[in-house]
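Could you show me just one protein sequence together with its fold in token form as a worked example?
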Amino acid sequence: MEKFETIEHDAFVKEIRDDTIIVDVISKSACMSCQVKGVCSVSDIAEKQVEVIRENNDVQIGDKVIVFLAQTLGFKAVFLGYIAPFFIVIFILILMLQLTNNELIAGILSIGILLPYYLILFLMKDKISKKYLFRLK
């Protein structure tokens, strides 16, 4: 069987439902693992809730678990959230500069194109979220 690279995070079980488990993932910035973090005033810990498919997992509320996602799916998420919008903005900016020869209009339209882009992503969130399934390790 082929082994896939995964993205893993420590988490705690918050809620158990019939077909899913809700876990709290603690995201730490790079500063949190630094040995001199006490000297620096920057520290960032964020708590995020993730829905995990329940697959005969014998877990209880409060248990420490590891959630994982295939690394390729992480790259796809970065592409949808950051890379594709960047190239769309650049493309629209160049296109509008050529068509209108007005930098203000080109700039406003190139930034404004992000609103429908992210609106489409929001409307498709149910379809997209079915592809991004976290699992417990």
